[in-house]
Design brief:
The complex is a heterodimer of chains A (about 325) and B (about 575). With about 325 residues, chain A is mainly α. Chain A has helices spanning about 1-20, 25-40, 40-60, 65-115, 120-125, 125-170, 170-220, 220-225, 230-280, 300-320. Chain A is elongated, with a radius of gyration of 28 Å. In chain B, strand 4 (about 390-395) and strand 5 form a beta hairpin. Classes of the chains: A mainly alpha (about 325), B alpha/beta (about 575). Chains A and B meet through helix 3, helix 4, helix 6, helix 7 and helix 8 of A and helix 2, helix 3, helix 5, helix 6 and helix 7 of B.
């Protein structure tokens, strides 16, 4: 129910931004897609280069003989990179315009709409609530349009591209990465859930403390005439201590997540190296299953290590945004 | 600024130091893992046995677990340290505010003080978290990866010597350029929000004067300027990603081409496939840590503004201070105003009070009458030293109020303010503000004098009835009577009622005054009132006009000779007469 509602909001947001920028938005999305795909492919080039190196070792070829194909791959990579830099830069510039333009248009729409509302609205709606549309809600929207949405898009494309590249090389190692990813998602959900609960608690105590401070400051003259400063301070300390407890617990959970994800990534990295190493032992005679039909070799295992890093990195990024 | 904020760390210094220590171990382990992986890859390439692979695997998993433990520990310490700093900052601010005079409070205003204690403290808390964790972690990561890259990659690592400064300078330039832009934009943002707030508050006026179009145009213009500023800043900030990518790409290309060249020409002696792969990992770690560092710097720079706003509160000196060697006993309830003038702030043009000379004997009952803005309340607030005089002197019991210990003075002068405030808590708790050791009988007695007992007894929970914030669940008249009872419990030498019976019916009003006469005859009583009926039986009545004393006399005298008093009296009695008809 809740996620459905969120999806609905995202879709509406997308439609709104699209109606403001019917040309710029698709161009920006195309740019970021291209950048993300180029970011995912180096694994292919790495595999080919390592293959070139190991082949040269086996055949005893010199750099003059083996260097040609390797450098050709590097040149192609450079060309891809130049394109990616151009589209990436363009995306950043376009996104700044789209974000700030959208916010301006929404602000104006909101203000003009407000002018047409009947007086009754202003009498019945808290002024703080109205202000919060202009400040908190606009801020959240900025975060969503300029950071969260692009980051989630980039991560999704990266994960997907990398996943296909993995399948291209080796099904078995892909399964290992998938298992690792599942564990990461599980941990994220558990720790993330805990941290969300405590952050909510923290918000609640913050509101309480704000209420207390307001009551005391408004009644400051009474406090002074009755010399009640000390009692006011004691009352404040009680709320403040509770806020400390909630805040440190919430942040403890939140701070736990990054090292947890990072080190699960490390373990995954290790497991891949070990599993890959075991597959490479000739006596075991493991058959590779892959789209490429390639036999498993060191030139496949090494890029896998890097691809695993890419995937865990992407998950980490997405979590940061969703948080 | 840093010094003042760091002063609030106190008991949270330990976790603040522990955090970077744990972070160091965490980073060290993280940087060693790719090194061991490189060794493993080489073993595999050479075609090693299964048990060698498993041994490496076990070592690596142990390292990851250790790194996780240090990571979680540093995270927990960091949470404790930053939340603790925030707690102490809020505490120090609140305590400081309690020592403020009203001039101090007026200077900041209440809502700004609340923002400073909440939003600004949260910003500083986040920045502190970044400082003790990320700002330590990133440079360490950079240095360790750099060393590891050189240990493994040899000459190949020189590519980092070329690339890292490029990225560092690029990111630094972006931070330097964008931070002032963002700050300026946020200030404009605040202004825009303020104008929206004004518009919301004055919605009625905007509509009745048909100013909607004008307001829309004004808002549209400000909104556009803000957008252009923010857009400019964000476009510069958006260069972060391409610069980072450029450096990463250069590393990739150089490592792939020169790396394979070195491996093949040296036959794997100077560099091998395992190292080749790990050096890319190190490259990524280095560049990423720089990226994090620049993000952290931007956020910390932004929090600087919040820090300044907090320090302003902490370093503000109260304009009301206890004297050295204060007088600790108030002799009696006599009051003298000698040539007193007063203005609310030094920059105010007009005096709120001018040339006040007044001598009140202990035990006298004084009434004060005057129109709104005649500074009646201001006059009495000088007695309990809520404000200090600008010229002249106010004396209580023959001693200048500035010579008393403030608590002693205020305990002898009970004041029921025009803006009555009850606090959330039970009736009993509220009344005990007057005397925390008051017995139930004393409380009941005070309520009887203030005619509050009759309605309290009708509440189901009687004296334990809970009062909501601001006293929202009792009526105005009930609130006034509770406030009078609260003041009576102090057993003061001087009792001041500032328009405190306006919501009480005339019959009860008279009953309360009679109780004062009968039960606390030696207490000096000053009664500010709108109705002449409330002061008729006072010993003397002061007529205030425009911050000056217009006349002093008894009811009969004033009725005969004072125009203002006569006018107030006749208008009120005529009205009363009309109503009775």
């Amino acid at each position: 129910m809740k996620t459905e509602k969120k999806k609905g909001v995202l879709l509406r947001l997308f439609k709104t931004v699209f109606s403001f920028y019917p040309v710029l938005l698709p161009v920006a999305v195309a740019c970021i897609t291209l950048t993300a795909i180029v970011g995912a492919v180096p694994a292919i080039f790495m595999q080919r280069v390592i293959e070139g190196i190991t082949d040269a070792f086996e055949s005893g070829a010199s750099w003059d003989e083996a260097g040609g194909p390797i450098m050709r791959d590097v040149y192609i990579l450079i060309a891809l990179y130049v394109t990616s830099l151009a589209t990436g830069t363009a995306f950043g510039q376009m996104m700044s315009i789209i974000t700030q333009g959208t916010l301006e248009k929404l602000r104006d729409k909101m203000f003009n709409g407000m002018q047409k509302l009947p007086i009754r609205f202003f009498d019945t709606t808290g002024h703080g609530d109205i202000m919060s549309y202009y400040t908190n809600d606009i801020d959240t929207l900025r975060q969503l349009v300029s950071q969260s949405c692009p980051q989630i898009l980039i991560s999704a494309i990266t994960v997907l591209s990398v996943f296909f590249i993995m399948l291209y090389y080796c099904l078995w190692l892909t399964l290992v990465v998938l298992a690792g990813t599942a564990v990461m998602l599980l941990v994220t959900k558990r720790i993330g859930g805990g941290s969300a609960r405590y952050f909510m608690k923290q918000q609640q105590v913050i509101a309480e403390e704000e209420g207390y401070v307001e009551e005391m400051l408004v009644g400051q003259k009474v406090i002074k005439t009755f010399c009640h400063e000390q009692a006011a301070e004691e009352g404040f300390d009680a709320v403040n201590d509770r806020l400390y407890a909630a805040s440190s617990r919430a942040n403890r959970y939140a701070n736990m997540l990054a090292p947890a994800l990072f080190n699960i990534g490390n373990v995954l990295y290790v497991v891949l190296a070990v599993v890959g190493g075991i597959f490479l032992i000739p006596e075991l005679g493991v058959h590779n299953v892959s789209f490429s039909g390639m036999a498993i070799s060191i030139s496949v295992v090494v890029p896998f290590l890097n691809m695993a890093k890419q995937i865990t990195g992407s998950i980490n990024q997405v979590y940061q945004q969703v948080n | 600024m840093v010094k003042e904020i760091a002063g609030s760390l106190r008991e949270y210094k330990r976790p603040s130091i522990a955090t970077p220590v744990f972070v160091t171990f965490e980073v060290l382990l993280e940087c060693l893992i790719p090194f061991v992986i490189a060794k493993l890859v080489n073993e595999i390439q050479r075609g090693c046995e299964l048990d060698v692979i498993l041994k490496y695997g076990a070592v690596l998993v142990a390292m990851a677990v250790a790194s996780l433990v240090f990571g979680v520990l540093s995270g927990a310490m960091c949470a404790a340290a930053s939340s603790g700093l925030a707690k102490n900052l809020r505490k120090d601010m609140f305590y400081k505010i309690q020592s403020y005079s009203f001039q101090n409070i007026d200077k900041f205003n209440v809502s700004s003080l609340i923002t400073r204690m909440t939003t600004d403290v949260t910003n500083v808390q986040t920045a502190y978290m970044l400082i003790i964790r990320l700002v330590i972690r990133s440079p360490l990561m950079l240095i360790f990866s750099f060393i590891m890259a050189f240990v493994m990659g040899g000459s190949l690592a020189w590519v980092f010597v070329a690339v890292v400064p490029v990225l560092a300078i690029g990111l630094l330039l972006i931070v330097v350029k964008t931070v002032p832009l963002f700050r300026r934009a946020f200030r404009k943002y605040d202004k825009l929000n303020n104008s929206v707030q004004e518009n919301v508050k004055a919605a009625r006026e905007v509509k009745s004067y048909v100013r909607e179009d004008y307001e829309q145009q004004k808002f549209g213009k400000a909104s556009h300027v803000l957008r252009m500023d923010l857009q400019k800043a964000e476009r510069i900030l958006a260069l972060n990603q391409p610069i980072m990518q450029f450096c990463l790409y250069v590393v990739m290309c150089v490592v792939m081409s020169f790396g394979s060249y070195i491996i093949i020409t040296s036959a794997g002696l100077e560099l091998n496939v395992g190292e080749f792969s790990s050096i890319l990992t190190y490259g990524f770690m280095m560049l990423n840590s720089l990226m994090m560092l620049s993000m952290a710097f931007t956020m910390i720079a932004m929090a600087g503004e919040s820090g300044m706003r907090i320090v302003e509160v902490l370093t503000e000196e109260s304009t009301l201070k206890n004297p050295e060697n204060p007088v600790t006993e108030v002799k009696d309830g006599s009051i003298d105003f000698d040539d007193v003038s007063f203005k609310y702030s030094a920059s105010a043009e007009k005096n709120a009070l001018s040339d006040i000379n007044l001598h009140i004997k202990s035990g006298e009952t004084i009434g004060i009458i005057g129109g709104t803005g005649s500074s009646k309340s201001t006059l009495v607030q000088l007695i309990s030293r809520l404000y200090d005089v600008s010229e002249g002197a106010v004396k209580v019991g023959g001693v200048d109020v500035r010579k008393y210990d403030m608590e002693v003075l205020r305990n002898s002068v009970a004041m029921v303010l025009q803006k009555n405030v009850l606090f959330s808590g039970t009736i009993k708790e509220n009344l005990r503000w007057g005397d925390e050791n008051a017995t139930d009988e004393e409380i009941a007695e005070a309520c009887r004098l203030a005619c509050a007992d009759e309605f309290i007894e009708r509440f189901p929970d009687k004296y334990d009835t809970y009062i909501d914030q601001g006293g929202a669940n009792v009526s105005g008249g009930q609130k006034q009577r509770l406030c009078i009872a609260r003041a009576l419990l102090k057993k003061p030498k001087i009792l001041i009622l500032d328009d405190s019976t306006s919501a009480v019916d005339t019959h009860t009003d008279a009953k309360i005054r009679k109780a004062f006469r009968d039960y606390i005859p030696e207490t000096t009583k000053i009664i500010i009132a709108q109705r002449t009926a409330s002061v008729e039986d006072a010993d003397r009545i002061i007529v205030m006009d425009g911050g000056r004393i217009d006349d002093i006399g008894t009811h009969a005298e004033l009725l005969r000779r004072n125009a203002i008093y006569r006018e107030v009296y006749t208008s009120q009695n005529k009205e009363g007469h009309d109503l009775e008809d």
